[in-house]
Each structure stands twice: as C-alpha cells, then as structure tokens.
Amino acid sequence: MYALVEYKGKQYKAEKGAEIQVDLIDAEKGSKIDIDTVLMISDNGKATVGAPYVKGAKVQVVVGDSFKDKKVLVYKYKSKKDYHRLIGHRQRYTMVTVESIVGA
C-alpha cells in the first residue's frame, strides 16, 4: 500500500516505514504530523484518486532529524564589464518516517 501526498508544495510517494526527505519542518524531533492532502491511494492494485484530494485519507509521519544539503555554488559573470559574484546556498531538510496510511 502506498499513497501520493502533497506537502509544502511538493509531491511525495509515501509507503509504510519509508523515510522521506522534505523541506524543513518547524517541529520537534519525534513529534507526529498528520498529512491530509492525499492525492492518491493504491492498495493491492486498487487505486483511489482524489479530486483534488481523497476525502478522509491521511498519512501519519514521525519527524526525524533536520540537516543541510550539500552547498550549491552560483557564479554570476558578465563579460567585459568586470562583474563576477559567487553565491553559496545550502537547503535545509527534515527526514520524516511514514508511520501509517489511513484510507477513506
């Protein structure tokens, strides 16, 4: 059984016990969050698709560690103008573990 969920503007495939890397969540480690924006649930080949969300369905996740991704360097340069600039960015993520999927 798996579900497709939308969380913070992005879509994820959630299976029981799976760890998902999502954008930073402002919650304590070990706390539980219910995600009710379930787009689709598939159970043994039988799919339930929402319009846009499946009513009564939710995915329960447990918040794990927060971490930063590797640094991405952005280099801007304009030729013949003596302009160059180096910018670095590290995206922050949180690992969540899917505890259960409750269907409609």
Outline the fold blueprint.
Layout: E1 2-7, E2 10-15, E3 19-23, E4 32-35, E5 38-43, E6 46-49, E7 58-68, E8 72-78, E9 83-89, E10 92-102
Antiparallel strand pairs: 1-2, 1-5, 3-10, 4-7, 5-6, 7-10, 8-9
Please characterize this protein's 3D structure.
This protein has 104 residues and is mostly beta strands. The protein has one domain. The strands form three sheets. A four-stranded antiparallel sheet has the order 2-1-5-6, with no helix packed on it. Strands 3-10-7-4 form a four-stranded antiparallel sheet, with no helix packed on it. The chain is elongated and about 60 Å long. It starts with a strand and ends with a strand.
What is the compact description of this entry?
This protein is mainly beta. It has strands at 2-7, 10-15, 19-23, 32-35, 38-43, 46-49, 58-68, 72-78, 83-89, 92-102.
Which sheet architecture does the biggest sheet show?
4 strands, antiparallel
* Structure class: mainly beta
**Gap between N and C termini, in Å?**
13 Å
Residues in β-strands, percent = over 45%
Low-pLDDT segments, ≥5 res: none
Order of helices and strands: EEEEEEEEEE
Order of strands across the main sheet:
2-1-5-6
Radius of gyration: 19 Å
The counted number of beta strands is 10
Helix count equals: 0
> Which shape, going by the Cα principal axes?
elongated
- Helix coverage percent of residues? under 10%
Query: Average pLDDT across residues?
Result: 94
Number of separate domains? 1
Question: What are the defining features of this structure?
Answer:
single chain, 104 residues, 4-stranded antiparallel sheet, 10 strands, elongated
